[in-house]
Design a protein that fits this description.
The structure holds 2 protein chains of 2 kinds. By secondary structure, chain A is an alpha+beta fold. Chain A contains 17 helices and 16 strands.
């Protein structure tokens, strides 16, 4: 951005991030001058850090500002979108896509024109409509690209309106798709609500987060393929995806709306402001998942107390990232039988308030976590002064003072899904302001249902 | 023997690139009398690294002036959009001739 203002710029980049820097550079279309810090500053002694700055980083930065301007970028030719890129047998297509880093390591469904057109028939949008320009490669998030990657992922053509809504949500600036390749290795989770859950045969019950049901599995796989192919988030031998360890794609989650209604709770989509009966997708980063949360008893508190202990135990460490940004969302997936017991006594807001009150961490501990991760200068007082955290977080200078792990009760999200025959729940942790819950209504074109049913006969 | 296996004409999953390539700004061979702005995302020990970089450059160009990262705010934090939007104006206001941006590590 600064270089575009006509101001020569040099960037500080760790040696492990050089490939990603190259991808970003191409996506921005601006050649960057780079000073390299060899290795990882967070594990170097003061002495080693000083030496690396003096011997590598600072000379590189100085050269970047005073030497020759970095060379203009050369772009490789690519097939025009919508044209035939390759012809071959099934195995040859797989090999070609693997070699080009266009797959996720699993075989893909060959995206022939006929298959892609079948997807496009399920949306009123034009194939070259563009929903946004997405990092890191600066590509157009076109309707055509959604259809092609949907075919490859094993989706059915009638899922197309769902896929379009997912990409619309992911390109919302609030979602920060530019951070999908960050080192924590978070993964977008798709949450589905509305009549399409049943119409498209999403699983919302036992084994909801397992592969095995076509709708859940292929929609989840689509998201990862889209991030690889359209955004350019690829692990080695590619570049761009810097998830240090990362996680595999998450199958789409569907809410068991019948159980939610039976318990008397609003659905997750209603909590997010949608009307009953709306078809909605929500994308939500997941950076961590609790163990299974089994809970027993016939009172609400029996279960929610157990949740507080397990969620607090699992998510407290990473909550410091939410403290730095003023936002993080724990998503609780309540088992239907558990939800029914809780809902008999408590509203969702009661649950949120209880968890908010009970889950706490000392100022000393959360500061330690932040300093261990990336931020030696972490200061609760400064975050309060900057308006990122509420005043209570700097109410005293006692390092043993207890702070709420969740910044505000309304940041806690709850939906009902899973095995109605067991007393298990689970919680998913969002990655602070990276991938906060972002929803879109699924617009079904007129005749969608008839077209869908026609395909089944 | 000819294979009976079907052949597939397939489309590329990559959509069009929308970026316009831009040339790098002209460099500044002599930093004496020039102003260098520091932009920092407040992670990865920049509080130690930036002063060392400053010291290194000043040793070679004693007439260089630095505008510290505190003047610009955290461009990758909770206020990223707001901070980023203000950077061009702040660079102009400080008369920045060059910039150092970090830290990607």
């Amino acid at each position: 951005m600064v270089e575009r203002l006509g101001i020569p710029t040099a960037s500080i980049v760790g040696s492990g991030f050089l490939k990603q820097a190259e991808v970003v550079t191409r996506g921005l279309g601006v050649p960057l001058a780079i000073g390299v810090y060899p290795g990882t500053p967070m594990v170097d002694s003061e002495e080693v850090l000083r030496r690396k700055v003096e011997e590598s980083l600072a000379p590189g930065l100085l050269q970047g500002l005073t030497g020759e301007a970095p060379a203009a970028l050369q772009t490789a030719a690519e097939p025009a979108p919508g044209t035939i890129a390759f012809s071959g047998s099934f195995d040859e297509v797989q090999e070609q896509f693997h070699r080009n880093l266009w797959s996720d390591g699993l075989p893909i469904v060959p995206p022939t024109r006929e298959r892609v057109d079948a997807f496009l028939a399920f949306t009123p949008r034009k194939r070259h409509d563009v929903l946004g320009i997405v990092p890191q490669e600066g590509r157009e998030a076109s309707i055509l690209s959604i259809a092609i990657n949907g075919v490859m992922a094993g989706c059915r053509p009638e899922y197309m309106p769902v896929l379009v809504a997912i990409v619309e949500a992911m390109v919302d600036p609030k979602f920060r798709i530019q951070d999908c390749g960050s080192t924590p290795g978070w993964e977008p989770l798709v949450i589905v609500n509305g009549p399409i859950v049943k119409a498209l045969e999403f699983n919302s019950g036992q084994g909801v987060m397992r592969t095995g049901r076509q709708a859940n599995t292929s929609v989840g796989r689509f998201v990862r393929l889209y991030l690889r192919n359209v955004c350019g988030y690829r692990i080695p031998p590619g570049a761009g995806d810097k998830g240090s360890i990362g996680q595999s794609f998450l199958v789409a989650m569907a809410e068991d709306e019948d159980s939610a209604a039976e318990a008397g709770w609003p659905t997750y989509a209603q909590d997010r402001g949608f009307a009953p009966g709306d078809n909605v997708v929500t994308v939500h980063s997941v950076v961590s998942i609790t163990s299974p949360m089994y809970s027993a008893g016939d009172r609400a508190v029996d279960h929610v107390q157990q949740w507080a202990e397990i969620i607090g135990g699992s998510f407290t460490y990473w909550a410091h990232t939410g403290f730095k940004t003023g936002l993080w969302n724990p998503l609780i997936v309540a088992g239907p039988s558990v939800a029914k017991v809780i809902a008999a006594e408590w509203s969702k807001d009661d649950v949120r308030r209880y968890l908010y009150d009970r889950m706490r961490v000392t100022a000393e501990r959360i500061t330690h976590y932040a300093r261990m991760t990336s931020t030696p200068t972490f200061s609760l007082e400064r975050l309060v002064r900057d308006g990122i955290l509420p005043a209570e977080y700097a109410a005293s200078d006692d390092p043993q003072r207890e702070l709420h792990i969740v910044i505000r009760p309304e940041m806690i999200e709850i939906l009902v899904a899973g095995d109605p025959g067991r007393n298990q729940s689970r919680a998913y942790m969002g990655n602070h302001i990276q991938g906060p819950p972002t929803s879109r209504r699924v617009d079904l074109p007129s005749g969608w249902d008839a077209m869908r049913l026609a395909r089944q006969t | 023997m000819a294979s009976n296996e079907p052949r597939y004409d397939v489309l590329s999953p990559l959509p069009r690139k929308a970026v316009q390539a831009t040339a790098a700004a002209p460099r500044i061979p002599d930093l004496n009398g020039k102003t260098v702005a520091e932009l920092w995302d407040v992670i990865f020990r920049g509080e130690t690294i930036y002063p060392l970089v400053r010291q290194y450059i000043q040793a070679r160009y004693p007439g260089v002036r630095f505008v510290g990262y505190e003047s610009f705010g955290n461009f990758h934090g909770a206020r990223e959009a707001e901070v980023s939007a203000q950077i061009p104006e702040k660079l102009r206001a400080h008369g920045a001739d060059a910039a150092i941006v970090g830290i990607g590590a």
